[in-house]
């Protein structure tokens, strides 16, 4: 709608145009997300179907080695569905947190232990840096470990063999309890991708991430969970190469 005046009618026309643009953008994002979800569901289903058909046709024997890929892909499907459920709950304001006061050092140690085998398989070292004194915060420990797991998994996928991923916990004080940093020495994040890096299904390099197993939801979920705690999360490129994700958690 053309805007030809600055009176109330002109302001109404401008507001209408903005609303139309927002609706068009929302519809475009919805279509893109639907296509992405369909793609992510179709890939593991196709692998499972091909593997099962080969077993039925007698090309593969019915033994654990042949059924392993089916189990792996069904696990990926289950994780994708659970990730989508988490985001849906967050959108509806129904994401519940079971907050207890915990020493955040324990969460970092647990997350490092959980991902050490995956890192070793990728030829990547995990370096944990925590202070000697405890750093406590009232959080949902399971959700915080989910955030750390998503960040570590992302860092491992983007780290070359022989490199190091640093997981560091620092005290802050005042209204912030702690800063958690996950830093890698991978290819880094293209500058034009930084504003969108926490969007759902966003990939700076779509083909590469799919081949490495990323669904494009991990960082979006990390942001939702951190913000549900009243915290913030950001991403930046490191001097010398690589990316660093920074989580700030409130003191209460």
Protein described:
The chain has 6 helices and 7 strands. It has 252 residues and is an alpha+beta fold. The chain folds into 2 domains: 8-92, Signal transduction histidine kinase, dimerisation/phosphotransfer (DHp) domain (Helix Hairpins); 100-249, 2-Layer Sandwich (Heat Shock Protein 90). The protein has a 5-stranded mixed sheet. It has a two-stranded antiparallel sheet with strand order 1-3. Helix 2 packs across helix 6 (218-228).
CATH domain topology of the largest domain:
Heat Shock Protein 90
Any idea of the CATH class of the largest domain?
Alpha Beta
The count of domains is 2
Strand content: 15-25%
What is the β-strand count?
A: 7
Average pLDDT, all residues: 83
Order of helices and strands: HHEHEEHEEHHEE
How many helix segments? 6
**Class based on secondary structure composition and strand pairing:** alpha+beta
- The end-to-end span amounts to 49 Å
- Principal-axis shape equals globular
Ranges where pLDDT stays below 50 over 5 or more residues in a row are 206-211
Helix content: 40-55%
- If classified by CATH, what would the architecture of the largest domain be? 2-Layer Sandwich
Describe, in short, the structure shown.
The strands form 2 sheets. This protein has a 5-stranded mixed sheet. It has helices at residues 8-56, 64-91, 104-121, 141-157, 206-211, 218-228; strands spanning 100-103, 125-129, 136-139, 164-173, 176-183, 232-237, 243-250.
